[in-house]
């Protein structure tokens, strides 16, 4: 068992190296570099910059060196010193801007994941045990709707409804007057009031998908002889259902944690732009548009690494819960 | 008594001798939702194909006087008498406090909606020039028909929605075509050869899956320079979507190759001396067409979602190209939605399309194996 986990952890190292290379290539792909974008920006405001100055600028940012050297500089600083370089756009170290945002993104993603399960598991079990009942149909319709509505659209509609019908301003994580205030009970409450919107928006899509999976798995398990045996021994329905088939049907949940996480992080990026949340999304978008490469690279790298860790955790969870995989 | 027996006999005979495709169609027809989705998708693509004729206006024709006109209501009766479908003229007023334009119906002015109306001229499919539209209104130069309202420049949202559908729906098809090519090639190689090649392809697929899609899309899309030809950007966007979207198809294809590889009919073909190429193309691939079609159908909504998300964020297609994602950009901030909620209409179109493709895919998947119980 320990050996399996160790092997799995070792396997993820080359993946991380590959991810870092892919990230670096992606952020290098746009033609031109930060200096070109900077010059274009200056020209829009009527200023200009001489060719010599441009060369000097490139040199000072280290953009004139070969790609492989730049890559090594970038990754070695991250690995050895935790230094993600300087955001060319903000003129601040990337790590200063990065961690707060990542922490919020992870918090929202984790809460959404939990909410996804809280919604999907009981409803999936109910739909399977009361197949073709009225509520089963209701939940089926809701499930399909949830799968069909893109996150950002749901956010837009909620924002509009909140504004038009409830006079409630959806968006942001804090009220304007609370944003810079020090942490207090009032601020925490303010956060909770704002937090539910993005969490619900992100959870619906995933919950809708998992609900169907849970229902299908449960239907398959409920027909098996061991369930009948349990009933025959005189156990009540609640006890039978929750003690045996649910545990088997839960396996796909563990195996998809790894995929649910990247999906949530992806969803967070675009939802955050719509809802104006102080998470990674808006900053990443801005960094990409401005070719602020260290910033964009740092975000993509960290988000991808969290995804790999999520997959790793789901594999380990799966082997812990399902002995058949462990011994295969 | 004997009669029913005979029809029962006939029925079983018909079922026994029906071709697989007929069986699939019967099975598919039972899935009512999927059948209706098929009709809806057919209708959407029909509208997209004949956009120029079906849209009442040119999607770029703007009108300073008609910014943010709310959707107009079609009436049938004017002062108690039947006149056929018509709209009332528009009355413009300015709110003295907010300086906002307020439109109301001018019930004195009846503008009947005419079929086969001559309006803005266009090149039909780039072939010949005409000005025939399915419908439009007769009236002065200033009278316009806004069934879904207008945007900030007074452009007709319905026309833009119809033209946008052409781009968005075709992105789905072309993107799926690319990812289908990549997916089926890599998937069949992995499934056939197995061993190390299989493991390598599996790892690559896992790697692509493990990167969060939207940041990856954003990163790749940001690499496209703004000044490129919109058509070229459009093609590249579909390629980007395909480069990330092929993994699922590859998984389906690989899985099926793995299961049929050891089945009797493949062995029979091999024993009769068929060459490997013939076994794959004549025996194995046809046996999984239906599964692949189902997987492809389920992949289309992903592509459509990808395009709309990217364009919505301003990294995908950009104006002047009209797509549903580009249209939704207008509805990005609370102020414009509060002012003109009808700008969310493209969102409804997206949801309807995605749902329809999902139902259709589910129906196809159920029908894919007609011999299953």
TrEMBL record, chain A:
Keyword Transport attributed: yes
SUPFAM superfamilies noted in UniProt: MetI-like
Residue intervals passing through the bilayer: 9-29, 102-125, 137-168, 188-211, 253-275, 295-318
Bilayer topology annotation: Multi-pass membrane protein
One annotated Gene Ontology cellular component of this protein: plasma membrane
Protein location: Cell membrane
Main location, first listed in the record: membrane
GO biological process per UniProt: transmembrane transport
Presence of keyword Ribosomal protein: no
InterPro entries: BPD_transp_1_N, MetI-like, MetI-like_sf
One Pfam family from the record: BPD_transp_1_N
ABC transmembrane type-1 domain sequence ranges: 102-318
PROSITE patterns cross-referenced by the UniProt entry: ABC_TM1 (PS50928)
Keyword annotations of the record: Cell membrane, Membrane, Transmembrane, Transmembrane helix, Transport
Family: Belongs to the binding-protein-dependent transport system permease family.
Name the UniProt record assigns to this protein: Dipeptide transport system permease protein DppB
Natural source organism: Pelagimonas phthalicica
Gene name linked to the record: dppB_1
Automatic annotation (TrEMBL), chain B:
PANTHER family linked to this entry: OLIGOPEPTIDE ABC TRANSPORTER, PERMEASE PROTEIN (PTHR43839:SF3), OPPC IN A BINDING PROTEIN-DEPENDENT TRANSPORT SYSTEM (PTHR43839)
Keywords, comma-separated and alphabetical: Membrane, Transmembrane, Transmembrane helix, Transport
Transmembrane helix keyword on record: yes
Organism: Pelagimonas phthalicica
Membrane-topology descriptor: Multi-pass membrane protein
Source domain of life: Bacteria
GO biological processes: transmembrane transport
Entry GO terms, CC: plasma membrane
Family: Belongs to the binding-protein-dependent transport system permease family.
Cross-referenced Gene3D superfamilies: MetI-like (1.10.3720.10)
InterPro entries listed in its UniProt record: MetI-like, MetI-like_sf, OppC_N
PROSITE patterns from the UniProt entry: ABC_TM1
Name of protein: Oligopeptide transport system permease protein OppC
Domain ABC transmembrane type-1: 165-361
């Amino acid at each position: 068992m320990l050996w399996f986990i160790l092997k799995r952890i070792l396997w993820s190292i080359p993946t991380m190296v590959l991810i870092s290379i892919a990230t670096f290539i992606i952020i290098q792909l746009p033609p031109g570099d930060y200096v070109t974008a900077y010059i274009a920006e200056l020209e829009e405001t009527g200023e200009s910059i001489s060719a010599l100055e441009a060369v000097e600028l490139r040199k000072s940012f280290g953009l004139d060196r070969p790609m492989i050297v730049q890559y090594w500089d970038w990754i070695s600083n991250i690995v050895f010193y935790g230094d993600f370089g300087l955001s060319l756009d903000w003129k601040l170290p990337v790590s200063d801007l990065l961690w707060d945002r990542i922490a919020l993104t992870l918090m929202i993603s984790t809460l959404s994941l939990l909410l996804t399960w809280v919604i999907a598991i009981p409803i999936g079990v109910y739909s399977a045990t009361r197949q073709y009942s009225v509520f089963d149909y209701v939940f089926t319709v809701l499930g399909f709707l949830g799968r069909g509505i893109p996150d950002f659209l749901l956010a837009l509609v909620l924002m509009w409804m909140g504004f038009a019908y409830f006079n409630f301003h959806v968006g942001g994580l804090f009220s304007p007057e609370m944003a810079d205030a020090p942490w207090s009970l009032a601020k925490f409450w303010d956060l909770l009031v704002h937090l539910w919107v993005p969490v619900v928006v992100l959870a619906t899509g995933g919950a809708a998908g998992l609900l169907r999976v849970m229902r299908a798995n449960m239907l398959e398990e409920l027909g098996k002889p061991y369930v009948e045996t349990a009933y025959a021994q005189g156990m009540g329905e609640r006890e039978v259902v929750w003690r045996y088939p649910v545990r088997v049907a839960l396996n796909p949940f563990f195996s998809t944690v790894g995929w649910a996480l990247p999906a949530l992080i992806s969803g967070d990026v675009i939802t955050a732009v719509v809802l104006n949340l102080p998470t990674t999304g808006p900053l990443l978008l801005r960094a990409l548009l401005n070719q602020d490469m260290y910033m964009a690279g740092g975000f993509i790298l960290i988000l991808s690494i969290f995804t790999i860790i999520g997959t790793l955790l789901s594999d380990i969870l799966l082997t812990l819960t399902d002995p058949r995989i462990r011994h295969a | 008594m004997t009669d029913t027996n005979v029809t029962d006999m006939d029925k079983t005979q018909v079922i026994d001798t029906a071709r697989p495709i007929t069986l699939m169609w019967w099975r598919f027809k039972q899935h009512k939702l999927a059948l209706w989705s098929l009709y809806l998708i057919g209708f959407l693509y029909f509208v997209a194909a004949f956009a120029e004729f079906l849209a009442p206006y040119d999607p770029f024709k703007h009108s300073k006087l008609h910014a943010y006109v709310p959707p107009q209501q079609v009436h049938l009766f004017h002062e108690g008498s039947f006149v056929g479908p018509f709209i009332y003229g528009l009355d413009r007023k300015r709110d003295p406090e907010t300086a906002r334009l307020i439109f109301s119906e001018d019930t004195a002015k009846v503008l009947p909606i005419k079929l086969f109306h001559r309006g803005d001229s266009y090149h039909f499919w780039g072939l010949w020039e005409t000005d025939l539209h399915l419908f439009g209104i007769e009236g002065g130069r200033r009278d316009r028909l806004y069934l879904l309202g207008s945007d900030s420049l007074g452009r007709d949202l319905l026309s833009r929605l119809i033209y946008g559908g052409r781009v968005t729906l075709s992105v789905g098809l072309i993107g799926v075509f690319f990812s289908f090519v990549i997916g089926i090639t890599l998937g069949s190689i992995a499934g056939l050869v197995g061993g190390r090649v299989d493991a390598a392809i599996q790892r690559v697929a896992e790697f692509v899956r493990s990167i969060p899609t939207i940041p990856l899309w954003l990163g790749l899309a940001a690499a496209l320079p703004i000044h490129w030809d919109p058509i070229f950007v459009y093609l590249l966007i579909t390629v980007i979507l395909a480069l990330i979207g092929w993994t699922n198809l590859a998984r389906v294809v690989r899985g099926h190759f793995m299961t049929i590889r050891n089945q009797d009919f493949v062995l029979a073909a091999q024993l009769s001396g068929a060459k490997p190429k013939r076994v794959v193309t004549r025996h194995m691939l046809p046996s999984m067409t239906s599964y692949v079609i189902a997987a492809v159908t389920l992949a289309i909504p992903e592509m459509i979602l990808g395009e709309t998300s990217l364009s919505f964020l301003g990294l995908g297609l950009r104006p002047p190209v009209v797509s549903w994602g580009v249209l939704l950009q207008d509805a990005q901030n609370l102020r414009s939605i509060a002012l003109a909620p009808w700008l969310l209409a493209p969102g409804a179109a997206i949801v309807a399309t995605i749902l329809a493709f999902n139902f259709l895919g589910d129906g196809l998947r159920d029908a894919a194996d007609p011999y299953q119980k």
